[in-house]
Amino acid sequence: MPRDHVHPAERSATAAGAPLSSAETPFLELLARGASADAYEQPVLLARAEGRPTERIVALEQAKLLALRVRSELEGRRRREAELSALFETAHDLAGLRDLDAVLQAIVQRARSLLGTDVAYLSLNDPARGDTYMRVTEGSVAARFQQLRLGMGEGLGGLVAQTARPYVTDDYFKDDRFQHTLAIDSGVRDEGLVAILGVPLMLGHHVIGVLFAADRRARVFEREQIALLGSFAALAAAAIDTANLLTETRSALADLERANEIIRDRSGVIERASDVHDRLAELVLRGGGVHDVAAAVSEVLDGTVEFTDAAPAQALEASRAEGHAVRHGVDWIAAVSAGGELLGALVLRGHPGLDPVDQRTLERAAMVTSLLLLARRSAAEAEQRVRGELLDDLLDARDRDPRLLRERAARLHADLDATHVVLAARLETAAADADQEADTRRRLWSAASHLAATRHGLAAARDGGTVLLLPLEPGDTASALARRTARHLGTAVHEAVTVGSSAPVGDLATDPDTVAAAYEESRRCLDALRLLGRCGDGAAAEDFGFLGLLLAGDRDITGFVGRTIGPVVAYDERRGTDLLRTLDAYFACGMSPARTKDDLHVHVNTVAQRLERVGRLLGDDWQSPARALEIQLALRLHRLSGSAQR
User: Fold this and answer.
1) Could you tell me the pTM of the whole model?
2) Which of 89, 305, 485, 635 allows an S-S link to 298, with CB 3.0 to 4.6 Å?
3) 475 or 92: which leads in pLDDT
4) φ, ψ for residue 460, nearest 5 deg
């Protein structure tokens, strides 16, 4: 063969000392430098192009096939080495399992890398919902795909999960071996997947999930790749099983620890129960109150315990019916009752987990509270009866010994030498029957007695209503006190209560008849309020203007005149003016300034100036019909009282 027709590969082989006639030489060089499979065609093509003998070309073809087999064997060994290395690393990760998600993510990443796929992902079965859901993905870009849930038998993955066998498709949307659904197909289409391989994750004979490898182009998965993915699936199943065992172990250890804590706490609970028993007994013996009981139980139960009469009705009724504390949300409610009567509840706030012994402690505290409430009620009822009896004696003038009256009042923290008002109160709601009417009257008397006790006064049931004797504070008025009392009693009994008040009275111990007269005056005011349609309101005689003269027991003419035209009278007395005479003439002349100036024989400007002064003294509304009527009556009474004095 001519020198210039030697193959380049053969020249290289010659330079290396190899024989030029060897057909394997160019292919050995290709194997040495790891050339691609396409490069192995070049020596044969070149020989044909150069017109080499047929024997030479046949030898090259045989050498090529042999070289390709060697290359395939080498690549297979390298691939198996890489696969074994990846499996070993994954097994190492599994041996040092700390984070299940991290191990599963590593398995999916290595499966994707070794199989050379675009996407790899792992789904787990959900026994509660009867489907399988995505747990880990690698290479995925579609959110809807990452959130897919596959029913058993739906899609390729659902089929794998149902049959426990590997399935592979080279074109997902053209494959009718499994059930297509709109949701699954939409997710696969969003991800752009075409070829998909799925193998089951097995624990014993049970499928717990599926491991997938997928490409965005058509592809045929080889048996070795299916086996490799199955190996990774086995490791993933082992990782999940190990994680579950670790979780169960930790849970068992936690249960043991909790059991130890319960044992330790049990002795503490018993000690607390003994402690609360001693504290409650001490509270009862030294006369403690309801709030003292709540405070003691709060400290023992390490929470906030309150006494209330506004607990949730359903929970309160359940507690009373069962005789035990009941849970309501994060609170515990123990009914406080006696003889079937509901008195309120003890509420343990924000303490949902209550030990049975602590629950009994709360129930015991509720029982002690009911006893204290009954004792307090008995004492209050006794005090109310005593207050009522004293007021009855004052109204009926039975006991005229001032010293004894003062002593009885002092024991009730009342001062008969102070200025008081007598208030008559009556409910305005019609009762359906006699029993209901009696009940509403008792509630009114109870509310009035409580108010009297807090205000250092007296209260008694009388004439179908209630009468109160309350001290009048400095700066206060009988009218204001009557209105406040009407509001207070109405709120307490949840009904409209009308209250009439007497004028302030004093010397109650010296002259008991004063109380009876004041009571009659307060009743007249009460009747006037009801006739005027002002039910549910409170007022005194001074609120009715000149009508107050008719309502007041002492017919206080001087007081009425003073309240109505007193500033004008005082001005005339200080300045020597004739404002009163001008007012008389002004009203006598039909409130005409022109006729008034003729009657007084003065200039009309003088009349205007005097009337302007009257307006400044009595207020801008002094000429309104109501005020004008009262002013005229006061002028007439002032003249009559002056004539009587003369």
Assistant:
1) 0.39
2) 305
3) 475
4) -155, 150
